[in-house]
Specification:
Strand content: 15-25%
Strand order of the largest sheet: 1-2-4-3
Number of strands: 4
Shape: globular
Distance between the termini: 28 Å
Length: 159
């Protein structure tokens, strides 16, 4: 959790994941920085770091897509303890580990990429067209760089 404007509740480890599979402080700090770049009012969200099996189940149940994915974001918008509840982010540790190995980047940076991407969706950004995708990716790269995460060539390909 954080004491800043963004309260992040993490649900880890999901079944099959060890606690050390999740760089919790990195993810929370990055989400807080990302939130502060867009908003200042107190807010909260839940972050689930899970497996491909579980994220595929969520994807099927909520979006009708029968496949694993890297990140899902579910907007809420209710109030909770004087904070707006942004919603939930689910990210796949399995996908992050696989993609990081394929691209030769740090697993933790791949997880951070997914978490921040989910946050920006909760804040109303989307990547449905080229213009919106470019804006979202520009902000994502800026926040990661400010947080000290070097944008490796393999990660830069997606930004």
């Amino acid at each position: 959790m954080t004491d800043g404007p963004l309260l992040v509740t993490t649900v880890v480890p999901a079944p099959g994941l060890a606690a050390d599979d999740v760089p919790e402080s990195l993810l929370i700090d990055l989400l807080d920085r990302g939130y502060r770049s867009k908003r200042k009012k107190p807010a909260a969200l839940d972050l689930l770091v899970t497996s491909d099996v579980d994220i595929a189940r969520l994807n099927r149940r909520h979006l009708g897509r029968d496949e694993a994915t890297d990140v899902l974001a579910f907007v809420d918008g209710e109030m909770e303890d004087g904070r707006i509840r942004l919603g939930d982010i689910a990210i796949s540790a399995d996908t992050a580990r696989r993609v990081a190995a394929e691209r030769g980047i740090h697993y933790e940076h791949e997880l951070a990429f997914y978490a921040l991407h989910g946050l920006l969706h909760l804040l109303g950004m989307d990547d449905e067209d080229d213009k919106d995708r470019a804006e979202m990716q520009r902000l994502q790269a800026k926040i990661m760089k400010e947080h000290g995460i070097a944008i490796a060539d393999a990660l830069r390909d997606r930004l």
